[in-house]
Amino acid sequence: MKAPSFPFYVRDWLCSRKVATMTGDEVKAYIYLLCESWLNIPRATLPDNDIELSEMARLPMDKWLQVKTKVMRCFENGECEEHEGLLFNELLLHISRKSENKQRLNNKNAKRSRIVRKLNTKEIEKKKKKSFIKPSFDEFVEYCQEKGFGKIGRKAFEYYDAADWKDSQGKQIRSWKQKLIGVWFKDENRGPAFYSKMAAEENSRSERLAKIKKVVSKSRLSMDEAFKKYNEDTGSRYTIHTIPDYAVNTFIQFIQEHYPDES
User: Fold this and answer.
1) Phi, psi of 75 (to 5 degrees)
2) Residue 156: strand, helix, or coil
3) What is the pTM of this model?
4) How many CB atoms lie within 10 A of CB 33?
5) Which of 183, 182, 165 is nearest to 174 (CA)?
6) What residues does 96 pair with on adjacent strands?
7) What is the C-alpha separation between 142 and 125, in angstroms, rounded?
8) Which long-range contacts (CB under 8 A, 24 or more apart) does 181-187 make?
9) Residue 142: in which H helix or E strand, if any?
10) How many CB atoms sit inside 10 A of residue 7's CB?
11) pLDDT for 129-167, tens place per residue?
12) How far apart are CA 157 and CA 184, in angstroms?
């Protein structure tokens, strides 16, 4: 891509003896030709043709022929094969070559950066793939059973194992536990063992609550009063609905010791 501008060296321009002797029309023509030269192909060159030069200088032919002598002192005839038959300004040509070399260097560095980024990305992906550790069948199924999804353990393991541990989109699985939680661990996939366990825990909870009610009723305290006394003594904030299982026996013991059966 061509640079859209070139540097204008103010001091050199003002100190130039060639420019100092030019008229206004000559200066205008010179500046127009420098700009046209910069955008021309090859860059920094002009055609050695009065018709084209007068058009580029924005002057009619008769006016161009009047200013041509002094303006053309700032341009040289091409002597090398690259610029044969063309005119060029030596300083502008030097700037152009310098700009092109810089652009080539920038393109080369940009290409190198893209290659490095691509290699780094591949290396990261490679490390990610290496970081995955395939679970054993027993480990996989045991985890499913632990979470209450024992019935889908074998099916899920065989599904991923057959796909080389890639998901339905062909992407490498990073965490098989996360994949189970997000895809397989749904209520409809829970096994009967889970619901049996839940029922057993609920029955156990009901029995403990019934025991609390029985002890409190014998103390002739209301339920709210019993918990208020217990909370004041222990610094707790429990109610019959929020008291954890591990605190039930402590609560019962407290009521029995401080507010024994008065029947």
Assistant:
1) -125, 155
2) helix
3) 0.41
4) 23
5) 165
6) none
7) 30
8) 184/144, 184/149, 184/152, 184/156, 185/147, 185/149
9) helix 137-146
10) 11
11) 567 788 888 888 888 888 888 888 888 888 888 888 888
12) 11
Tokens read off for 91: 């300083």
Q: What is the DSSP letter of 191?
A: -
Give the dihedral sign, CA 37/43/44/50. Answer: negative
pLDDT by residue (tens digit) across 43-98?
888 998 999 999 999 999 999 999 999 999 999 887 656 667 888 888 888 888 88
* Inter-residue long-range contacts of 164-167, CB under 8 Å, 24+ positions, other chains counted: 165/132, 165/134
For residue 134, give the DSSP letter.
Answer: P
Q: What is the number of other CB atoms lying within 10 angstroms of the CB of residue 227?
A: 22
Written as one string, the DSSP assignment of 19-49 is HHT--HHHHHHHHHHHHHHHHSSSTTEEES-
213: pLDDT confidence band, cut at 50, 70 and 90? confident
Contact yes or no for 263/220 (Cβ under 8 A): no
Delimit the domains of the chain by residue range: 1-131, 137-189, 208-258
Q: Which ranges constitute the DSSP H helices of 74-136?
A: 90-131
Type and span of the H or E element at 177: helix 176-179
CA separation for the pair 185, 7 (Å, rounded): 68
- How much of the chain exceeds pLDDT 70, in percent? 89
In what order do the strands lie in the sheet containing 86-88? 45-47, 86-88, 76-77
Distances (CA, A) of 152 to 70, 128, 141, 155, 164: 93, 27, 8, 5, 18
Q: Which residue has 């690259």 as its token pair?
A: 82
- 75, 46 contact by CB (below 8 A): yes
Q: Which residues contact 219 (CB under 8 A, 6 or more apart)?
A: 226, 255, 256, 259, 260, 261, 262
